[in-house]
Amino acid sequence: MRVVFCGTPDFAVPTLERLIGEPEFQIEAVVTQPDRPRGRGLETVASPVKRVAEAAGLRVYQPAKVRTEEAFEFFRQIAPDAVVIIAFGHFIPQRLIDLSPLGWINLHASLLPKYRGAAPIAWAIAQGESRTGLTSMRIDAGMDTGPMLLKWETEIGADETAPELAARMAAAGPDLMVRTLRGLEAGTIEPEAQDNSQATMAPMLKREDGMIDWAGRAEKIYNRMRGFTPWPGAYTRFRDSVCHIWGRPATPEPGSAEPGTLRVAAGELHVSCGEGTWLRVEGVQREGRKRVTAKEFLSGARLEGGEKFGEV
């Protein structure tokens, strides 16, 4: 099977490596995002997918846009049997989709139709889901709306973070993709239309998604902490600065307080949350400073009675 692989981040790498190693697949080209400046020095860095492709001696194409005549001609001349697309970072126009007989096959990191969009892993955790998975699908011109092919399901650990879950899902992706491609070639997979009435969205994360609403239950705040790791994290205001917070729900305490109120008990720092729940703070990073433990934060902050997170 002649395949073009489209992808960019680490999440796509295991599947690319598996396809390279399978003799039944011939990778004609790898398409990935242009090199970008990264880090404090803004050094230009290739995507993880490009690095793997170059190491394997594969042809690499890096269009800034795919809605161009150049991109169309690139795919038309190769005329692949199938295109595998994983976290590529571009919307694909219908005329490109129509070029491949088996279609453009996407590995989406949710159990569709739930969590369509750019950040399905983060939002599944943030919304308190206990299960998620991968869906292989034929893309269409919509946002993750194409017909579903195969699925793989897994539990989400009670303390699992987005990077941890992403690593497990990326490792499960290659087998699902290989089974999907084989099934499509053999004609043994019956595509299943998505029930749009059951769809939920997982939009690209924004910085403001990390702002903690202390009126929410501690469990909800903890879920967002796990889901929004490493960015945008979970943050609040304290005195004159923004603080990133790490913690977990605390054993219920007697009484309640206004959301955001800080309380020290047995040397631990707790924050009052919604519905009488409490969050035990484990780490704090004030703006422009390094992360410290809750004990170190208390030592330096010298709290006054009634102080709260969330106030300017």
Structural overview:
With 312 residues, this protein is α/β, with parallel strands linked by helices. The chain folds into two domains: 2-198, Formyl transferase, N-terminal domain (Rossmann fold, 3-Layer(aba) Sandwich), CATH 3.40.50.170; 207-301, Formyl transferase, C-terminal domain (Methionyl-tRNA Fmet Formyltransferase, Chain A, domain 2). The chain has helices spanning 13-21, 48-55, 69-78, 94-97, 120-126, 162-186, 218-227, 294-301; strands spanning 2-7, 26-31, 36-38, 43-45, 60-61, 82-86, 104-108, 131-138, 148-155, 235-238, 241-249, 262-265, 268-272, 278-286, 292-293. The strands form three sheets. Strands 5-2-1-6-7-8-9 form a seven-stranded mixed beta sheet. Strands 10, 11, 12, 13, 14 and 15 form a six-stranded antiparallel beta sheet that branches. Helix 1 (13-21) packs parallel to helix 6.
